[in-house]
Amino acid sequence: MRTVFFGSPEPALPSLRALLEAGHGVELVVTQPDRPAGRGRKPTPSPVKEFALSRGLAVFQPERIRNDPAAVERLRAARADLFVVVAYGQILPPDIIDIPPHKTINLHFSLLPKYRGAAPVQAALLAGDAKTGITIFRLNEKMDEGDILTAVESDISPIENAGELEARLAGLGSSLLLDTISRIGAIPRHPQDAAAATSAPKLRKENGLIDWDQDAAAIDRSVRAFTPKPSAFTFFKGQRLIVLKGAPASDRVTAGAPGQVRRVTKRGLEIQAGDATLFWIEFVRPESRGPLDAYAFSLNGRVRAGDILG
């Protein structure tokens, strides 16, 4: 089948790779424009662009596809049977969605109508859900509201962070995508239940600030949900400290202020959290430094019992 693929970040790559390996024609890859990144703020291509160019695929990077008449003509010229969208990063207008005979399908990282929006994986982790999944639906002009074609459910591991869960769902989604395309003309469409819909808006950097008044289980969910980005963080001696990994402690302590370091051991830093709970910080990334285990940070940063984070 002739396709046009819309995608930008790393989680879109398994689906693009699967299309090629299955023999589907990818006539054009549409991705976000190069964006400044790194300390030098050098324009950097998306992972999808880099992969597409390595495979000799044509790449198109409209700045604002909704307001670009030339984009409509470029997409019509591809003469695709189907448009496939996986984490593209821009909303497509109806005059693009309806171009191919089989219209446009979108792979979404949740079981719709739950967690419509830009951050469904993080939302599932923050909520403490035991299950999530992948949904492929017929795209329309509204945010993740189109008719459902196929879906697959998956358990969430209690130790998975957002990056790990998203990567695993991306693999599941690539298989579901191929199955969906193989039956694209025969799959019944199921309207979403609007009453059951929940939202998962894009996360901001400041949303990752750890609230030590929360109990340890809630803090653990936040750390996993915000890893690897936009990052869960606290402050130590006025410096931003990213928390990469941790776990709730099994014991409880009633004394101590939220954010207080209770113990420093080779496991890491045991921190007083809310509701008499304790949280172990095991791996961190200090400001302007690389990742390291929390015990090593305690030696370099001279962390002691009684110090306060936050």
What does this structure look like?
This protein has 310 residues and is of the alpha/beta class. It folds into 2 domains: 195 residues, Formyl transferase, N-terminal domain (Rossmann fold, 3-Layer(aba) Sandwich); 97 residues, Methionyl-tRNA Fmet Formyltransferase, Chain A, domain 2, CATH 3.10.25.10. Helix content is 25%, strand content 28%. Strands 5-2-1-6-7-8-9 form a 7-stranded mixed β-sheet. α1 runs parallel beside α6 and α5 runs antiparallel to α7. The protein is elongated. The N and C termini lie far apart (54 Å). The model has no long low-confidence stretch (mean pLDDT 95).
What can be said about this structure in brief?
The protein has 310 residues and is α/β, with parallel strands linked by helices. It has helices at 13-21, 47-54, 69-77, 94-97, 120-127, 162-182, 216-225, 294-301, and strands spanning 2-7, 25-30, 35-37, 42-44, 59-60, 82-86, 104-108, 131-138, 148-155, 232-236, 239-252, 261-265, 268-272, 277-286, 292-293.
Question: Key features?
Answer:
alpha/beta, Methionyl-tRNA Fmet Formyltransferase, Chain A, domain 2, 2 domains, 7-stranded mixed beta sheet, 6-stranded antiparallel beta sheet, 8 helices, 15 strands, 25% helix
